[in-house]
């Protein structure tokens, strides 16, 4: 028999990509559920509707990733299981105290997740990249969040300082948990920094985080907040 | 100019149908958000995944109804606004104390909502009926809930009594709030019972509720619970 020529075509993708889909899948599921939960305390129907739509989009991403894992012959739950600890820990450690913090969490969290997916999509097979890019689909969310947050800050300027601090904490926790996952799972670490094989350079991981933090800073500037 | 020949084709549907779509839309949004919120306390990834998928489906129904209202030239938020009070009141009065109660709420609530939609779909224009039937799309949910609840009751038989009482309270509250909405909005009441014009027979509303309660009883029997 011939050796497998195309991993993607044969339906075999490296363990690290399966891991990655599991991590993203559980992250999307949890983000959707948390956002829905936060939407219940949103002030007014407009914000609630918007948060409900965002939550629905996250849950749909989760569905797609589950379907892909299933097509690859994996049990989505089994693949996601190792990532429940770090993802849940992130959310436990970043419970919004009000809906403004919840909105910042959506904006910062979605933004950094998108940048992160974009980084790693470079290193995976075509079918997985296509899926990851679909999950990144631009949505009109951002405009709504920026407008709503700008309005809230204009109404109550001192809130800006609290929200800037909160955003910084979110990024710190996101990076800490990602690092924790990457260090526990060497194959995944290799994938994240584009290395193939042993001897992954940890400095590469640091550089990736630096890029993510730079992009985060630009988003904070859009809100008029100190990064 | 010719008079409007077909309400549905021209995009004009009676006010009562618009009302109905608003009520269903907000009910689906809220059911999705509540279920997502309850999923966060589900024991184990399996139940969480299942509840997340169900919540995603409800939010997608909400999206479709919003899109239809938009196509009909209405602002979905404005149309839903009158129904936030009764729907929120239903949920405030029926907060599950644990995930088993949450699961019963999904099963009972989805079931009665589906039967209710089926009743009223008889009285609306084709396009709206098509949409309502899409929202009813059979899903594999039921099997999962029945199996999970049966397992839980087998493990802890005394729980059956508490869950039966809980289910009865859910139906009572659902009917009370529906009645409240129908009595406040005469056009909607006419639609619910298939009347056209004045002098709607309130007894018809009672008969519809009786049919819904009968179907609810069959679902309870599937769980081995006293209706």
Automatic annotation (TrEMBL), chains A, B:
Domain Ferritin-like: 15-195
Database matches in Gene3D superfamilies: 1.20.1260.10
CDD domains attached to this UniProt entry: Ferritin_like
Entry-linked InterPro entries: Ferritin-like (IPR012347), Ferritin-like_SF (IPR009078), Ferritin_actino (IPR059125)
Name used for this protein in its record: Ferritin-like domain-containing protein
Gene source species: Ornithinimicrobium faecis
């Amino acid at each position: 028999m011939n050796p497998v020529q195309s991993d993607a075509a044969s339906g075999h993708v490296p363990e690290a990509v399966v891991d990655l889909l599991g991590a993203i899948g559980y992250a999307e599921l949890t983000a959707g559920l948390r956002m829905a939960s936060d939407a219940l305390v949103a002030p007014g129907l407009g914000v609630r509707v918007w948060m409900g739509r965002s939550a629905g989009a996250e849950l749909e991403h989760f569905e797609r990733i589950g379907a892909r894992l299933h097509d690859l012959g994996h049990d989505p739950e089994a693949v996601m299981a190792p990532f429940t600890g770090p993802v849940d820990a992130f959310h436990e450690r970043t419970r919004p105290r009000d809906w403004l913090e919840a909105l910042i969490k959506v904006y910062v969290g979605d933004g950094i997740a998108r940048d992160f997916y974009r980084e790693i999509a470079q290193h995976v097979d075509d079918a997985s990249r296509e899926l990851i890019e679909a999950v990144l689909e631009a949505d009109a969310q951002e405009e709504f969040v920026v407008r709503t947050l700008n309005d809230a800050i204009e109404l109550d300027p001192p809130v800006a300082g609290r929200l800037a601090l909160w955003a910084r904490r979110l990024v710190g926790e996101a990076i800490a948990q990602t690092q924790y996952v990457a260090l526990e799972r060497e194959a995944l670490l290799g994938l994240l920094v584009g290395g193939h094989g042993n001897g992954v350079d940890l400095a590469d991981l640091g550089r990736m985080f630096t890029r993510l933090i730079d992009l985060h800073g630009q988003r904070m500037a859009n809100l008029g907040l100190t990064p």
